[in-house]
């Protein structure tokens, strides 16, 4: 049973994404027909995409976002000179 679910999962995700795209396109069309400026629609699109993607990126890349430890005796490149070399 579990193998079949894993086998169907990519297709199910693709269907969900296509349904979401269709819904968004319908909402865009309704907003444009109601008189909303296309520039405003695009601005809202970017705002909502940013509001969705930033928390997702932070959650998925939490470990990669840690500040690396730098050896205090290492050469630090400060263009055009090298400090502590």
From TrEMBL:
The keyword Calcium does not apply. GO terms for cellular component: membrane. Keywords: Membrane, Transmembrane, Transmembrane helix. InterPro entries: WAT1-related. The keyword Ribonucleoprotein does not apply. The chain crosses the membrane at residues 12-30, 42-60. One of its GO terms (molecular function) is transmembrane transporter activity. It comes from the Eukaryota. Signal peptide: none annotated. This is WAT1-related protein. It comes from Linum tenue.
């Amino acid at each position: 049973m579990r193998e079949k679910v894993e086998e169907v999962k990519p297709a199910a995700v693709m269907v969900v994404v296509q349904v979401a795209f269709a819904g968004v396109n319908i909402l865009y069309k309704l907003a444009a027909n109601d008189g909303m400026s296309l520039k405003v629609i695009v601005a809202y699109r970017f705002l909502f995409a940013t509001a969705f993607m930033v928390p997702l990126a932070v959650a998925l890349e939490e470990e990669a976002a840690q500040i690396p430890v730098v050896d205090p005796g290492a050469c630090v490149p400060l263009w055009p000179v090298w400090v502590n070399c």
